Amino acid sequence: MRCGFCLPACPTFRETGIEAESPRGRIALMKAVADGLMDPDEAFETQMNHCLGCRACEPACPADVKYGQLLEQARDSVEKHTTTHRWWVKAARKTAFDGLFPHQNRMRLLGGALQMYQKTGLRKLVRGAGLMKMFPAHMREMEAILPDASYKGVVEQIGAFHPAKGERIATVGLFRGCIMDVLFTETNKHTVELLNEAGFDVVIPESQNCCGALHAHSGEQDGAKALAKGNIAAFKAAGVDWIASNAGGCGALLVEYDHLLHDDAQWKQDAAWCATRTIDVSKLLVEHGRLQSAAQAAVAAGAGSMVGSGASIGGANNGSRSGVPASAPAAVSAISPHGHAAASGGCGGSCSGGLGFASDEKVRITYQDSCHLRNVMRSSEAPRKLMRSVANAEFVELAEADRCCGSAGIYNLTQPQMAGQILDHKMEHVKHTGAQYLLTSNPGCLLQMKNGIEKHGMSGQMEALHLVDFLHERICGKH
Ligand code: SF4
Ligand code: SF4
């Protein structure tokens, strides 16, 4: 089929109007290579590199063409064929893909170096001396919005096991991510606390590693497979019912480990286990979790109705997958900070609740989908249900929230012009929401949104946050 239904969904086609910049055009090029009509040469590589890999073309396709899998194969064949990479490109790739991402201890060292740069005044010195001017504009912009890095990851900070509050629904393994654990350690900690609050034991297997997404998307299939096997072994050994992901880009590869290892007789069964047990944290909370409802909290506190602006969270889906414990009734009505309800239990531990939480403040929120979360993990309703259910928060839909923000892994670094163009269009829509919080569910998208807010002079009115951090703040209160 060459119906073209995918064309309007494709950000690069929308930006350029050129057939070769569309999914249909790219598939035609891939077919020409597969049929031996052309080589996977530099021109082909350029075209493949222009693709964001956002996979918005997949849900739009009536023939269920697995574009993402085709793209990975195409990039793999480019990698095998190319002789054009400069030596420093090869060295940088080898250092990052083989020497850094697979080793969490080295990632932490990098986090420590970044932390030192950020905290010791070195950053001020570098900026003051004008050294950042040596870098291209898009790298300077990224440097300016990098969050505080950490030498210690989530396990080093809070330990590897965290029991559920109240009756245990299931045991969840947290996929902590390599970059996520260095740059967004707080989000990982907040994820653990939310899951505990919702009734899940949380285990964070220490031997897990990078998901392999950057490898797979860059044509380094062997590296991606090795990392996948490490993760499958780690979560199998931990005996978990679910594997929770709070980063759309990582989760999307975990749910496709079965495809990645489909021709590996030894691993394909465990890979399928891993793929079916991986779930987005929003979906886990909405479909299987238990969160304090505002209505219940108000009754417990004798404070009358405090139900927020949104609709109810969807009904329970009690452990629909085989072997997964049936959940208690799922989250209901509007989510409330437990501080309103003395009887509600609260987050406990570091999340001690109390009356000083921020959720009395009425806020307007909006949401940018993570492409991989939406198009691959097919989780777009659960985050919205959660947001609509937060007390005193008005959720406003962002126009074209389902369209890529231009982050796309490292696309904003490798293709800055197209990424910048896509971001500028995105921020026009963001402005119209009038929201104080722009939420998203993937670290790359979050950094891109922070960059957009700075670039468009909106930092006085709006803040970009991970959805988990926002929920944690509203449910557990500020610390
Ligand atoms: S993955 Fe995204 S950018 Fe690439 S062809 Fe599909 S819709 Fe277009
Ligand atoms: S990829 Fe799917 S939607 Fe796009 S042209 Fe082919 S069949 Fe049609």
Number of helices: 25
User: Could you name the ranges where pLDDT drops below 50 across 5 or more consecutive residues?
Assistant: 293-333, 336-358
| Major sheet summary line | 5 strands, mixed
Quick one: overall form? globular
Query: What is the third-level CATH name, the topology of the domain at 293-313 and 332-476?
Result: Rossmann fold
Number of strands: 9
User: What fraction of the residues are assigned to beta strands by DSSP?
Assistant: 5-15%
Q: Say which molecules are bound, naming each kind only once.
A: iron/sulfur cluster
CA-based gyration radius: 22 Å
What spatial order of strands do you see in the largest sheet?
A: 1-3-2-4-5
What class do helices, strands and sheet pairing give?
alpha/beta
CATH architectural name of the domain at 293-313 and 332-476: 3-Layer(aba) Sandwich
Portion of residues in helices?
Answer: 40-55%
Output the CATH class name of the domain at 293-313 and 332-476.
Alpha Beta
The end-to-end distance, rounded to whole angstroms, is 55 Å
Mean pLDDT metric: 84
Short description:
The chain is 49% helix and 7% strand.
Describe this protein's structure.
Residues 42-65 form the 4Fe-4S ferredoxin-type domain. It holds the Pfam family Fer4_8. Keywords: 4Fe-4S, Electron transport, Iron, Iron-sulfur, Metal-binding, Repeat, Transport. This is Glycolate oxidase iron-sulfur subunit. Component of a complex that catalyzes the oxidation of glycolate to glyoxylate. The chain is of the alpha/beta class and 479 residues long. Among the domains are: 7-81, no CATH class; 293-313 and 332-476, Rossmann fold, CATH 3.40.50. The protein contains 25 helices and nine strands. The strands form two sheets. A five-stranded mixed beta sheet has the order 1-3-2-4-5. Helix 24 links the parallel strand 8 (437-440) and strand 9 (463-466). The radius of gyration is 22 Å and the shape is globular. It starts with 10 loop residues before the first helix and ends with a helix. Residues 293-333 and 336-358 have low confidence and may be disordered. The protein binds iron/sulfur cluster (2 copies). One iron/sulfur cluster binds at residues 9-12, 23, 26, 51-57, 67.
